[in-house]
């Protein structure tokens, strides 16, 4: 009955996960447990981030802090915490992380799932107290259980994600995720150590008036990108660029808008990573009614060829992504 589905604001994440699992008669609970493992690591990383200001985080790796402890960069700490939570949780056989060149085998060869993760994106923003985020993507392994996960398990198209989400460590800490049945946002109450449902059934506006792109690279934008940026200015849109992907994405998701990281001279394939940035946010934005492409192709249809491959990213309100793609198509016709 529909009202059973409409869980009230304030429902805890645990209860939400349990009730949603009931909607999948064949669910055996592993994905639910995996989501709980990620939420646990997010709580721990949140505490580390909040403490970092107090223990004189030098930021650079290998500095001593006031306690004389070996100071680790927060993105190294976050990587350790998420991988440990996934290893201890037992549901994941293999992890790919922005922080590690190669696949990480957890030893859980019975694990059904593979996780791609950016443990702490935008960590250069930490020292200046700008919001930062964790981005994750979950796939079902294709190889048989009982062995290590394979490269093919890790290089699956975005359309094969079973779940994806992000944590934004900002003025409040939120977990936003989807398992393919809509997008829900949970706000963390540190004093209780719980995530509470605060943004049920997030849908992103079909259009908007915010555009997010680093115009410092404008001299190397392709004509189509330059023309779209000019279109945004002619429409009197607002430029909003925090330089922290999760923060820029989250704001645009809720308010409507477009985030673009195009090919530039410094980043000929764009700067952002397909497996643990683009695809995860693409799954979320599509589930929220938005769109994500590389400028010419649905992002989640891209066939990955390497763990850390980059991709141009056009993501947000459907009508704005369509408009950007129109300008890029005109550019190609003009060539
Ligand atoms: P630029 C942060 O380093 C990051 O990976 C994303 O979080 C952010 O959106 C982007 O890079 C900013 O890159 O080249 O504009 O400084």
TrEMBL record:
Q: Biological process (GO) annotations? A: fructose 1,6-bisphosphate metabolic process; fructose 6-phosphate metabolic process; fructose metabolic process; gluconeogenesis; sucrose biosynthetic process
What cofactor is this protein dependent on? Answer: Mg(2+)
> Reaction(s) catalyzed by this protein?
beta-D-fructose 1,6-bisphosphate + H2O = beta-D-fructose 6-phosphate + phosphate
Primary localisation category: cytoplasm
For this protein, the record's InterPro entries field holds: FBPase_C_dom, FBPase_class-1, FBPase_N, FBPtase
Look up keyword Protein transport and say if it applies: no
Fructose-1-6-bisphosphatase class 1 C-terminal domain span: 205-328
Localization recorded for this chain is: Cytoplasm
Q: What is this protein called?
A: Fructose-1,6-bisphosphatase class 1
Give the encoding gene's name: fbp
């Amino acid at each position: 009955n529909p009202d059973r589905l409409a869980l009230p604001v304030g429902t805890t994440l645990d209860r939400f996960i349990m009730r949603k699992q009931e909607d999948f008669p064949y669910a055996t609970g592993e994905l639910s447990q995996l989501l709980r493992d990620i939420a646990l690591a997010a709580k721990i990383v949140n505490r580390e981030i909040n403490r970092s200001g107090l223990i004189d985080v030098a930021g650079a790796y290998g500095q001593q802090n006031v306690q004389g402890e070996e100071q680790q960069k927060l993105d190294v700490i976050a990587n350790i915490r998420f991988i440990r939570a996934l290893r201890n949780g037992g549901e994941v056989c293999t992890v790919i992380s922005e922080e590690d060149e190669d696949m990480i085998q957890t030893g859980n060869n019975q694990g059904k799932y593979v996780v791609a993760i950016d443990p702490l994106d935008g960590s250069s923003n930490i020292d200046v107290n700008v919001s930062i985020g964790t981005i994750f993507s979950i796939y079902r392994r294709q190889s048989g259980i009982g062995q290590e996960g394979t490269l093919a398990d890790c290089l699956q198209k975005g359309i094969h994600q079973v779940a994806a989400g992000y944590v934004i460590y900002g003025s409040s800490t939120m977990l936003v995720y989807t398992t393919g049945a809509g997008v829900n946002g949970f706000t963390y109450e540190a004093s209780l150590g719980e995530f509470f449902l605060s943004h049920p059934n997030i849908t992103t506006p079909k259009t908007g008036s915010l555009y997010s792109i680093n115009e410092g690279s404008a001299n190397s934008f392709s004509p189509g990108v330059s023309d779209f940026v000019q279109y945004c200015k002619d429409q009197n849109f607002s430029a909003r660029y925090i330089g922290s992907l999760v923060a820029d994405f989250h704001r645009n998701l809720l308010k409507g808008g477009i985030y673009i990281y195009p090919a530039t001279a410094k980043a000929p394939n764009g700067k952002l990573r397909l497996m643990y940035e683009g695809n995860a946010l693409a799954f979320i934005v599509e589930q929220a009614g938005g769109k994500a492409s590389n400028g010419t192709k649905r992002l989640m249809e891209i066939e990955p060829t390497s763990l850390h491959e980059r991709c141009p990213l056009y993501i947000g309100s459907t009508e704005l992504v369509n408009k950007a793609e129109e300008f890029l198509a005109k550019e190609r016709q003009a060539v």
